[in-house]
Amino acid sequence: MYASIILPTYNEAASLPRAIDAIRAAMAHRDDWEAIVVDDDSPDRTWELAQQIGRDDPRIRCYRRLDRRGLSSAIVDGLSLGTGERLLVMDADLQHDVTKVPDLLASLDAADVAVGSRYMRGGGVGEWSKWRIFLSRVASWSARIVLGLRSTDPMSGFFAVRREAFLQVAGKLNPRGYKLLMELLTLLRARRVAEVPYVFAPRQTGESKLSGGVIWEFFLSLVELATRNVVSARFVKYALVGLSGVGVQYGSFYLLWSRFMGAEAGTFTAIATAAISNYMANNVWTFAERRHRSLQDLLRGFGLFVVISACGAFINQSVTWYLEHLGALLPAAMVAGIVASTTWNYFLNLDLTWKGHARPE
Ligand SMILES: Nc1nc2c(ncn2[C@@H]2O[C@H](COP(=O)(O)OP(=O)(O)O)[C@@H](O)[C@H]2O)c(=O)[nH]1
Ligand SMILES: [Mg+2]
User: Fold this and answer.
1) Ligand 1 atom closest to residue 208's alpha carbon, by position in its atom list
2) Which ligand 1 atom lies nearest to the CA of residue 39?
């Protein structure tokens, strides 16, 4: 059955030719395959190299993406371009065991997704530090428990999927970050999953693009997938900024009060400080791609933010008071008040303060 091998690349000129040779060797027994390099306009001109290889060997195609960045979206574009009934994704840096490609493709005889796994008998991670192994295992384990996935390595970047299964869920994918397999497995939960062990090899050339923020990104994806996007990554950020504001408010109150001003002025100044820090943090982080920059936008944005937050504070108090009045325990009533006001604040700020269309990644 015709197979399409997707190779996302960013600055992999040093290893791409060897990766292609390894694929040719592994697939030497058949000729019904193609390889698609999806390159995000790498500064090292990986795309040029891929185009050159493709001129001599038309089985190798290259999509040089000029308008977008990001591993997951590159994989989705590659999968969409693939014409084979079976689609396979692997790194172009030789860290995935190319000799396992035929096994992964063959596993789709009896499964809809086939995962190259580092965490089953026969698999491994080579020379990773204990700390990295620990983090990776905790992440896989939480993905399995929280999302109910049946793979031993849901974070793998080495996997194959039937095109028909991919197309069924392609429209629902939200390719952020780099854990596309986790998302695919969540959407295809009811389908059959096969696994093939492989040993993750150390990188020989070039460098890993996935270092900073990886754990954080993973956590956000997990929340989004577990709640079926009801709780978005943005909402999590917003709630965390709100929490930091509580710290700022109480912190500044204790700094100011008694030493510099009385309780009332202290409370007012502390609330104002927290409002400014919350607004700034949301502006540069939660709503980064819709950021207010001009003085006019900043003033207008801050004004709206304060009005909405003031209504939120009122909602918070009212809900807490009302539930307590109905006989709820105070802590429960307070939590309900916080949830109600945070939700109100979030959606109003999303639609009014930072309204606008997000640019694609
Ligand atoms: N097109 C594209 N490919 C990427 C991007 N980031 C990483 N890659 C490729 O994805 C594969 C895995 O990335 P890598 O940095 O090796 O991750 P690691 O193996 O977890 O360290 C490699 O082939 C990279 O060149 C990206 O933003 N766009
Ligand atoms: Mg790699």
Assistant:
1) 15
2) 1
360 in any annotated domain: no
Is residue 86 a contact partner of residue 163, using CB atoms and an 8 Å limit? yes
pLDDT digits (tens, 9 = 90+) for 199-229: 999 888 777 766 657 778 888 888 988 998 8
Same domain? For 332 and 204 the reply is no
Q: Which residue has the tokens 């912190």?
A: 251
137 and 242 both lie in a single domain: no
Its pTM stands at 0.81
pLDDT at res. 6: 98
- Of the chain, the percentage scoring pLDDT greater than 90 comes to 76
Residues of the domain holding 108: 3-226
How many angstroms is it from 95 CA to the middle of ligand 2? 5
Same domain assignment for residues 260 and 141: no
Burial per residue of 107-135, b for 16 or more beta-carbon CB atoms within 10 angstroms, e otherwise: bbeebbbbbbbbbbeebbbeeeeeeeeee
Which tens digit of pLDDT belongs to each residue from 248-292?
999 999 888 877 788 888 899 999 999 999 999 999 999 998 999
Q: Are 119 and 150 in contact (CB under 8 A)?
A: no
CATH code, domain carrying 126: 3.90.550.10
* Residue owning the nearest CA to atom 22 of ligand 1: 91
Question: Among 209, 217, 361, which residue has the most ligand 1 atoms within 8 Å of its CB, making it the best to mutate?
Answer: 209
